[in-house]
Amino acid sequence: MQEVKEKLKGEILEEIDALNDIDMNSEDYNPAVRGIGELTDKYIELEKIEADRAKSEAELALKAESDKSEKHSRWVGHALTGLGILANTGLLIWGVITNVKFETEGNIPSTESGKAAWREITSFKRK
């Protein structure tokens, strides 16, 4: 693409140089000007095509980066959901085991410090 642009640019410059030698009132002047205009239009079209291609490549790169980021976010979301499910399952299992122990023994297993803290929290009821 670059070679074509360079050749076209060289041809435009040659035509402009040749146009300087042609008399403005001659019959050859107007067709030469039209020819330069057409060559210039083609050069502009090549520039547009090149700009569109660069834009498309940039959009594809941005989309690829966005897809990668989205995939990472999706994996993080799935991991957090899995952790939430595991935490709830663990809490449920712990609750069932504790409840079964309470049903069989008749008391809630606790430490002395836990009992003391609970007494301190509920001490306002005793007064």
Describe it for me?
Helix 1 (2-21) packs antiparallel against helix 2. By secondary structure, the chain is an all-alpha fold. It has one domain (2-126). It is built from 4 helices and no strands. The chain is 87% helix and 0% strand.
Total strand segments: 0
What percent of residues adopt helix (DSSP H or I)?
over 70%
How many domain regions?
1
Q: Report mean pLDDT, rounded to a whole number.
A: 86
Structural class per helix/strand content? mainly alpha
Instruction: Give the distance, in angstroms, between the N- and C-terminal Cα atoms.
Output: 93 Å
Strand content: under 5%
Shape: rod-shaped
Main pleated-sheet profile? none
Query: What order do the helices and strands follow?
Result: HHHH
Please tally the helical runs, counting DSSP H or I stretches of 4 or more residues.
4
Rg, Cα atoms, Å: 41 Å
Return residue spans where pLDDT drops below 50 for at least 5 consecutive residues: none
